Amino acid sequence: MLQPELKLRRDKIRWFMAQQGIDAALITCNVNLLYTFGRIVSGYLYLPLNSPALLFIKRPNNISGEHIFSIRKPEQIIELITENNLPMPTKLMLEGDELSYTEYNRLAALFPESEIVNGTPLIRQARSTKTPIEIEMFHRSGIAHAKAYDKIPSVYHPGMTDRELAIEVERLMRLEGSLGIFRVFGQSMEIFMGSLLAGDNAANPSPFDFALGGEGLDPALPVGVNDTPIKEGQCFMVDMGGNFYGYMGDMSRVYSIGKLSDEAYTAHQVCLDIQNEIASIAKPGTVCEDMYNTAIEMVTKAGFAKNFMGIGQQARFIGHGIGLEINEMPVIAPRMKQKLEPGMVFALEPKIVLPGVGPVGVENSWVVTNEGVEKLTICNEEIVEIEVSN
Amino acid sequence: MLQPELKLRRDKIRWFMAQQGIDAALITCNVNLLYTFGRIVSGYLYLPLNSPALLFIKRPNNISGEHIFSIRKPEQIIELITENNLPMPTKLMLEGDELSYTEYNRLAALFPESEIVNGTPLIRQARSTKTPIEIEMFHRSGIAHAKAYDKIPSVYHPGMTDRELAIEVERLMRLEGSLGIFRVFGQSMEIFMGSLLAGDNAANPSPFDFALGGEGLDPALPVGVNDTPIKEGQCFMVDMGGNFYGYMGDMSRVYSIGKLSDEAYTAHQVCLDIQNEIASIAKPGTVCEDMYNTAIEMVTKAGFAKNFMGIGQQARFIGHGIGLEINEMPVIAPRMKQKLEPGMVFALEPKIVLPGVGPVGVENSWVVTNEGVEKLTICNEEIVEIEVSN
């Protein structure tokens, strides 16, 4: 990672710090270190408002450079700040929504004279508008993601279960360069590489706040495939995380085994229409709840409101910011007054679940430009029919 | 999950609570809900010392039963405790090492009259000795894990990179039933399904406190394979997480491309000897640091101390408890005075990294019985030679 890019990112955070009278941040969570230092280490980035950042590294032991110091434990940070002729901060921010209660208190205790505040919302706000280099990572991810999806029909074999097919799709993603790991903000949401939902399993609710659920294979991970055969006349939706360079690109596509009911194609077109309508109104200044309400109006008028974003347990959002984690700001949901800003990247995923058929709809990743939005995941959006062998 | 098993687990936690004068626990982290409720939900298990547990579920919306209540937000918990004729706790424990600072404080604020303490160490202590059903899950995991490893030579092709081979090994694990997800205690350690370390990449340090590191494919996940070709006369070690039923079985095996140097076979045998010596002394009452010191004495005498558990950056442990997470109690490391207890399950992983060759050694999962230890991962422990095609 080039230093100007890292400086740009750190200065985005500093800009918000200045607004809130915060004169230093101590950053240690993986995604925030990746954001501000360009790679994950076991250590701490100390970010003063008006001086260069200091990096304190526990592991690995082979990183050196200006302003980089090797430490064994965080208690050594204080003397190193002093040795670098920096004052103790008056108001310090820590990652309060991400650090454990125990770790937050351990770090806060190092600064007994400082006011300590939760910096997570501020860092997430800074991260919500991407730099040109981050947007380029999403562009590249979208290309690799589409290459993997284009090969999905070739790995399907009649009689496969959803689990067996998901394994082959995961392999396709890995072969195109997916790092595999699926990063989510918060400790409560878990998933493996993403989901493949076939037939009625798409209507099964999960504990997690993803757009759709699925029963899962085991109570230890109750989401996604449930090892049932994929049937003719039904469809499956692939929604794998597209983490090729650390950035969680997001894209869903639908594949059918033979033809589906007419209603399924109608419902799919409703989702495409919703996507295209929202894409046409989305631009800097567009309010997130307005985008959500547009979707609800359209799906209600089309008669699919009860099947929108699940059945029985319906997700209350149609899109979400993406970045180093799958659930960044903004959220496209009811009562969200946040406005789109240039550089924001979000996934938009209108989906309808039809009993006896499966999930239809679409998901793409979008970046907000100065004039509107640009699609980052270019790949056929129709239902891809896999012919039934006779 | 059968109720008697859940009651047994909850009573293990209650036993420690009683010792510390704690009269209730509020549990919400995924692995602890899986442990005490048998499946993951978005919700809270309220565990009073002397009354049945109450379960408050936000999602999914299709779980009902005795003592189960649907809620939208944790603030509803208080009225439901009262409606169930339970007193407010005098001393309540929360998952302080696992919950974020923000979430811990939100939950603590619900109980303004209660003393709040960190319950994570206590729950981890309860979880460190497994029930017979949990041990059975490890037995089954070991069988599936070994089946996948037995097929590794069949997916190797000459000219493969470590990344390409890792993808095929991941697929084998998934086909045998691996859930894929790799659960680690603490927010700082991340890895995809496990690692495959070939040749000199095994000596590359990582930020994470795993036994070995590896450079990784991207600064976003600097651990494991680095896309270099696997060479003749070198070896690779497979160390995939064996999560087939929620329990993180752990096993490492070594495969060579053609013959290795004599030194490599000697070093491998040293690791097997260390494993076997430790297995012969391990029983209830054995002190963890004594096991560690035994390994260090043996590897020093054999002349491989500088290559033990890495080169340059060496791991300071040779084993670790396993369970729902890969890093449970006890830790087999210096200054660890903890004694083995019946029912503890741990991984033992003496490994030596040889420059120009790769990593040798072994890792198995073991359960502590009343008399000694029993191996849970039965699979050929010699270096498996993959013949070089001519």
Task: Describe the secondary-structure layout.
2 copies of one chain form a homodimer.
Chain A: H1 3-19, E1 24-27, H2 30-37, E2 42-48, E3 54-59, E4 68-70, H3 77-83, E5 91-94, H4 101-108, E6 115-118, H5 120-128, H6 132-150, H7 152-155, H8 162-175, E7 194-198, E8 235-243, E9 248-257, H9 262-281, H10 288-301, E10 319-321, E11 328-332, E12 345-348, E13 351-354, E14 358-361, E15 364-368, E16 373-375, E17 384-386
Parallel strand pairs in A: 1-5, 3-4, 5-6, 9-17
Antiparallel strand pairs in A: 1-2, 2-3, 7-8, 8-9, 10-11, 10-12, 12-15, 13-14, 15-16
Please explain how this structure is put together.
The structure is a homodimer of 390-residue chains. By secondary structure, the first copy, chain A, is an alpha+beta fold. Chain A has 2 domains: 3-125, Creatinase/prolidase N-terminal domain (Creatine Amidinohydrolase, Chain A, domain 1); 129-386, Alpha-Beta Complex (Creatine Amidinohydrolase), CATH 3.90.230. In chain A, 31% of the residues lie in helices and 21% in strands. The first copy, chain A, is built from 10 helices and 17 strands. Chain A has a 6-stranded mixed sheet with strand order 4-3-2-1-5-6. The longest helix of chain A has 20 residues, at 262-281. The mean pLDDT of chain A is 97. The interface between A and B is large, with 66 and 66 residues.
